[in-house]
Amino acid sequence: MYPFTLERPQTTADAVKLAGAGAKPLAGGQTLLASMKLRLSSPEQLADLSAIKELTGICRDGDALVIGAMTRHMDVAGNADVKALIPALAHLADNIGDRQVRAMGTLGGSVANNDPSACYPSAVLALGATIHTTTRKIAADDFFLGMFATALKDDELITAISFPIPQRAAYMKFKQQASRFALVGVFVAQFKTGARVAVTGASTGVFRHAGLEQALSQNFTAQSAAGVKIDAEGLNSDIHATAAYRANLISVQTQRAVTQALA
Questions:
Q1: How far apart are CA 20 and CA 149, in angstroms?
Q2: Domain end: 127, 144, 164, which one?
Q3: Cβ neighbours for 146, distance < 8 A, ≥ 6 positions apart
Q4: Is the same domain home to 188 and 99?
Q5: 165: which DSSP letter?
Q6: pLDDT by residue (tens digit) across 98-134?
Q7: Kind of pairing, strands 58-61 and 45-48?
Q8: What percent of the chain has pLDDT over 70?
Q9: Rounded to an integer, what distance in angstroms lies between the CA atom of residue 115 and that of residue 180?
Q10: How far apart are the C-alpha atoms of 257 and 189, rounded to whole Å?
Q11: In a domain, 9, yes or no
């Protein structure tokens, strides 16, 4: 690592001031610290958000679940309201990384970093969530801008994310065994207004699949998903899988997710 200083703000306001002065927010550190160790990132100052209690917690607000940005993966996975209202989200959180990662990693950190193979962005996008920040509210469809890129400004922090409660939903991840990130992950959600399908791990960033959404909005079955041709154009091709393999996985994982959602 390059040398850096570490601050530990006690309030969101203090954290915003530090971020505005150039400090890099540190949530769980699962992405940031790894990139610093590899010298891919070299912030001169970090603002550790772990002491800010107002950024944690889970509560129901009408037809949505609101989860604080600094809520750990293990707390999302074990929360009774999440299990009862959006069990797919609890399942997703319970299968991120290993136990140590789930004990340290946070919802807000994952979403703010927008790793192209991270799990949470697919849930945020498929559920049509709203990202609450220190200055505004951002719809999921407007938030993710590409690989490690989001609509967040430098001095803007995620405070919470509001997840609409779907009629049914499921998440299926085909893991890259070494990292446990998603080689391909598909989150499917059904609402009264139709279906939403978000894919992670297959491209340079999380994305919705219009063809699968149209088919599942008309007929929410695995057979309907199987009838959609998945184009490999623009998908990742690397040592782990070709673009064609990932395209096939998108179809298979979507079918599995729909079957799970209907179970």
A1: 18
A2: 164
A3: 204, 205
A4: no
A5: P
A6: 999 999 999 999 999 999 999 999 999 999 999 999 9
A7: unpaired
A8: 100
A9: 13
A10: 9
A11: no
